[in-house]
């Protein structure tokens, strides 16, 4: 089993910044792809950014140029630096990872962290 725990959410004014963290824990696993998703009230969950198993980073159109994802493989951590935040960025942000345990690949989600951007 692998757990993903997000942190760093909160309330910020438009134009401000936040940094989200995702900590992966468990035993005998390796992370392949990892990414951030978000879900606003009444809307479907959407991809914010993904880093593939090959290291390719893809950002959603609405955050490209404002958000930056990084990962620390040694610490099993991922980060999302969010700058120039807008009210429309308000959502619950989820960390997602595709994880190898032995020969099998599994998909895991964190419970999410709320980001609220006031105008």
Keywords, separated by commas or semicolons:
4-stranded antiparallel beta sheet, mainly beta, 119 residues, 11 strands, 7-stranded mixed beta sheet, 0% helix
The percent range for helix content is under 10%
The low-confidence parts are none
Roughly how many Å apart are the termini? 40 Å
Averaged pLDDT:
95
Number of helical segments? 0
Question: What is the overall silhouette?
Answer: elongated
Strand content: over 45%
Number of strands: 11
The H/E string reads EEEEEEEEEEE
Computed structural class: mainly beta
* Rg over CA atoms: 14 Å
Largest sheet entry: 7 strands, mixed
Secondary structure elements and pairings:
Blueprint: E1 2-7, E2 10-13, E3 18-26, E4 30-39, E5 46-51, E6 57-59, E7 67-72, E8 77-82, E9 91-101, E10 104-109, E11 113-118
Parallel strand pairs: 2-11
Antiparallel strand pairs: 1-3, 3-8, 4-5, 4-9, 5-6, 7-8, 9-10, 9-11
Can you put this structure into words, describing what you see?
The protein is 0% helix and 61% strand. The chain has no helices and 11 strands. The strands form 2 sheets. Strands 2, 4, 5, 6, 9, 10 and 11 form a 7-stranded mixed beta sheet that branches. It is elongated, with a radius of gyration of 14 Å. The mean pLDDT is 95. The chain has strands at 2-7, 10-13, 18-26, 30-39, 46-51, 57-59, 67-72, 77-82, 91-101, 104-109, 113-118. The chain is mainly beta. Strand 4 (30-39) and strand 5 form a beta hairpin. The relative contact order is 0.33.
């Amino acid at each position: 089993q692998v757990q993903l725990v997000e942190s760093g959410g909160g309330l910020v004014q438009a134009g401000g910044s936040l940094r989200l963290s995702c900590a992966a824990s468990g035993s005998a696993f390796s992370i392949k792809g990892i990414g951030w998703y978000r879900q606003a009230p009444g809307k479907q969950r959407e991809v914010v950014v993904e880093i593939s198993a090959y290291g390719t980073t893809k950002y959603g159109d609405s955050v490209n140029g404002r958000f930056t994802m990084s990962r620390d493989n040694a610490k099993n951590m991922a980060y999302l630096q969010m700058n120039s935040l807008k009210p429309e960025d308000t959502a619950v942000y989820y960390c997602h990872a595709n994880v190898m345990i032995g020969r099998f690949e599994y998909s895991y989600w964190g419970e999410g962290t709320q980001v609220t951007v006031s105008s």
